[in-house]
Structure formats: structure tokens, C-alpha cells
Design brief:
This protein is about 20% helix and about 20% strand. By secondary structure, it is α+β, with helices and mostly antiparallel strands. The protein has a domain of about 110 residues: Immunoglobulin-like (Sandwich). Strand 4 and strand 5 form a beta hairpin. Pfam families: PIH1_CS. GO terms for molecular function: dynein intermediate chain binding; protein-folding chaperone binding.
Length: about 190
């Protein structure tokens, strides 16, 4: 055992020096107290990803004379006029479902009370001291623009709508405009053959 003591101490010191220099090289980029296994994650499994030349939208914008792309501009932003002193009227958005007895009692159509199963939006806008002929209404897919001599409303809608299929009705006794807009769902775009 004595023969192993001196040479093994020297061997352990040499091994310690070898490992500590290797560890110092690894820890230049990472934290010193983290083990090498803790630095590995799911991205380290398999071969490293190939680095191809990527074209980013910032690169495209920098080389073109456009300040922004059309996707970055919210629909209806052209109607935003911050210098217009007219107040915004009170409004309320109500989601509506067409529910029949087969939905209510049997659940055959798979509808639930969530907003994803709603068929239309009802926008109620209170317009005190306003007549129906004074109302100018413009509805886009995701934006409702209402103008009267006393009020203005630029409303970004929570869901895309079929703007051509909506209807509006003004109730003079309540001084309220009701706009019903059918909601455009993702499955509306599917073509069944």
C-alpha cells in the first residue's frame, strides 16, 4: 500500500491539473459552477443544425424603401385620427350562437358555450341625440368604422367577419345602433368535395 501512496498522489495531482485546465477552457463561455451535463438541452441531441443563409424580414425592410410591410399594419389604422375631438360612443360586443333543440338536448352538432362556436357578433352602439340618416358605417373584415357629427368609433373586431353578410338596424326610441356581423371561421375556408 505504501508503494501506491507516493505515486498515486502524484498521479492524482497530475490528473487534477489536467482536468482543471480542461474545465477552465469549457467554462469560459458558461457559468463556472454548472456541471457539463446541466448545460446540455434537447437541442444538443443529434447532429448540429445546418446554417443556411436566412433572409429575415428586417433584412428585406432594410434593403427596400418600405418602412413597414402590409402585414404589420393593423386593418383600420387609416381611420385613426388622434386630432379628431369627437368622443367615442359607448358600445358592447355580444357573441351569438344559432342553437336548435338538437344542440340543446342531444348535443349532435358538437357546439359548446365557448366563443369558438359562435356564429355572429352583435355590436350595440349607443348614439344619444343622433338620427339614423347622420350615421356613416363602414365594416371591413376586422374593423368597424362609425362616424356621426357628434361621435366617432374605430373598433378592431375580435374575430374576422363576413363584412358583406352583416346587417345594421337603428332604434330611434333607444338611440342605439345594432350591427350584426357573421363570424368567419377557419373551417369556412375548407373546401369539401
Amino acid at each position: 500500500m505504501e508503494g501506491l501512496g507516493v505515486s498515486s498522489v502524484q498521479q492524482l495531482q497530475a490528473l487534477s491539473a489536467l482536468l482543471s485546465t480542461q474545465q477552465e477552457d469549457d467554462d469560459d463561455d458558461e457559468c463556472e459552477n454548472v456541471s457539463s451535463y446541466a448545460r446540455l438541452g434537447p437541442g444538443h441531441i443529434g447532429p448540429p443544425p445546418k446554417r443556411e443563409k436566412e433572409v429575415t424580414s428586417a433584412y428585406i425592410k432594410k434593403n427596400s424603401k418600405d418602412i413597414w410591410s402590409e402585414e404589420e399594419v393593423a386593418e383600420g389604422s387609416q381611420y385613426d385620427d388622434h386630432s379628431d375631438p369627437r368622443p367615442q360612443p359607448e358600445y358592447e360586443i355580444i357573441l351569438k350562437q344559432n342553437v336548435g333543440t338538437e344542440d340543446l338536448f342531444l348535443g349532435l352538432n358538437g357546439k359548446d358555450p365557448s366563443s369558438m362556436c359562435c356564429d355572429a357578433m352583435l355590436v350595440k352602439i349607443k348614439l344619444p341625440q343622433t338620427k339614423a340618416k347622420e350615421v356613416a358605417l363602414d365594416v371591413k373584415e376586422k374593423f368597424l368604422d362609425l362616424r356621426t357629427p357628434k361621435y366617432k368609433l374605430g373598433l378592431h373586431l375580435p374575430y374576422p367577419t363576413h363584412s358583406g353578410g352583416g346587417k345594421a338596424q337603428f332604434f330611434s326610441e333607444r338611440e342605439e345602433l345594432e350591427v350584426t356581423l357573421p363570424i368567419k371561421h377557419a373551417e369556412d375556408f375548407l373546401i369539401v368535395q
